[in-house]
Write a structure and sequence with these properties.
InterPro entries: XK-rel, XK-related_scramblase
Largest sheet: none
GO biological process, one term: apoptotic process involved in development
Catalytic activity: a 1,2-diacyl-sn-glycero-3-phospho-L-serine(in) = a 1,2-diacyl-sn-glycero-3-phospho-L-serine(out)
Oligomer: single chain
Number of helices: 15
Membrane topology: Multi-pass membrane protein
Structural class: mainly alpha
Strand content: under 5%
Protein name: XK-related protein
Number of domains: 1
Length: about 400
């Protein structure tokens, strides 16, 4: 095995271990916070944390189970029987099983002297599903959890050590999931390299800098109007769900699971940008940024007019200007990324047509995660069209 490939596989394995560790650490910090809320008599806060954990876990298990049922029957040769898998998902262990399966396959590939193309492709197949499930879990649980903890801190006027642990693990998990999902999408592009350190850092920073002001604005509104934040979320969520439906998504195999996917996407869009269909990504992205910015500004203005309701001593006179600077800096870094680091360079083949065609045919005979390929086409339509030749697109369409 070439040294560069072995090094890449080693770091992929390390990142996989860190991802599982981050998930378990955040879960532990949430359960720790629940126990402290119960001991201190804040049963409503404990109930809200457990509700977010339970809903996100159920949705994750549903997606994991539906995807496993949709995969080719001969693809997962080493996994347990259908009843055993159903029991694992019923016990809310399906996502962890996928993580363990991905780590086992990654370790198998790394230990092989000359790994087969099938084993490499299968390892990528598993990691892509894990990346997408991690993204769903991030916006269904970690981001709302972070918003809830910040709202509790703003209401109480003090921060406990277990709340700091929840805030730190949430921020780390959110950023990790966004970056990992982006790298998974980039691996689906034909002949496009995985983003390097500079590209990954810029992508990591602009997502984090744009997400933080949105989370703070929702947390401020939640602290001031805890009884109305649910109505605010449902109102915007319905608008975003309608927007997703109008775009005509076709990600899942059946209508019921497709509506579940649209509901999850609408939840993601409440906090951050997520592209779901082909077309002019820039126009839809601008509309979404303006929509969220307007909503966040209105929530902050509402808080400013009623700021006396919140406990004093919280450094909001520093947090609010810092959030504005964070938003502007995030926009600048986003423009830098899409201007110079986005995968839109033209692909120049290094082989003659016959050899290239044979290699393309072999590529599509390997395990291919069509879910992530579909999303990669939506996220990077220009890069995909420029990377694939007409013959390659024709072969892919037939297969």
């Amino acid at each position: 095995m070439p040294w560069s490939l072995r090094t890449t596989l080693f770091w992929d394995l390390i990142l996989g271990v860190l991802g599982v560790s981050a998930f378990l650490t955040h879960l532990g910090s949430d359960l720790w916070a629940v126990s402290q809320y119960v001991l201190s008599g804040h049963y409503l806060w404990a109930t809200l944390v457990l509700t977010l954990l339970g809903l996100s876990s159920v949705v994750l298990q549903v997606f994991s189970w539906v995807w496993m049922r949709a995969d080719p029957t001969d693809l997962h040769s080493s996994q347990p029987s259908g009843r055993c898998l159903a029991l694992l998902h019923l016990l809310q262990l399906g996502y962890l099983y996928r993580c363990m399966q991905g780590l086992r396959q990654g370790l198998l590939v790394w230990q092989q002297e000359v790994p087969s193309e099938f084993d490499l492709a299968y390892a990528d197949f598993l990691s892509m599903d894990i990346s997408m499930l991690r993204l769903f879990e991030t916006f269904l649980e970690k981001t709302p959890q972070l918003t809830l903890v910040l709202a509790i801190v703003l209401q109480s006027g003090q921060t406990e050590y277990y709340q700091w642990a929840s805030i730190c693990t949430s921020f780390f998990g959110i950023s990790w999931a966004l970056l990992d999902y982006h790298r998974a999408l980039r691996t689906c592009l034909p002949s496009k390299p995985v983003p390097g350190l500079g590209s990954s850092v810029i992508y990591f920073l602009w997502n984090l800098l744009l997400l933080w002001p949105r989370v703070l604005a929702v947390a401020l509104f939640s602290a001031l109007f805890p009884r109305y934040v649910t109505l605010h979320f449902l109102g915007l969520w319905l608008v975003l769900l309608f927007w997703v439906w109008v775009q005509g998504t076709n990600f899942m195999l059946d209508p019921c699971s497709e509506w579940l996917y649209r509901a999850v996407v609408a939840t993601i869009l409440y906090f951050a940008w997520f592209n779901v269909t082909e077309g002019r990504t820039r126009d839809r992205s601008i509309i979404h940024v303006v929509f969220l910015l307007s909503d966040s500004v209105l929530m902050v203005i509402t808080w400013v007019t009623q700021s006396a309701w919140l406990p004093s001593g919280i450094l909001l006179h520093i947090l609010l200007p810092a959030s504005g600077i964070s938003f502007l800096l995030g926009l600048v870094l986003r423009l830098v990324y899409y201007r110079w680091l986005h995968p839109s360079r033209r692909w120049e083949p290094a082989e003659v047509d016959g050899t290239r065609g044979l290699r393309c045919l072999q590529l599509y005979q390997l395990p291919q995660n069509r879910r992530m390929v579909h999303l990669a086409q939506n996220f990077f339509p220009k890069a995909w069209d420029e990377a694939a030749s007409p013959w390659e697109r024709e072969v892919k369409g037939v297969l």
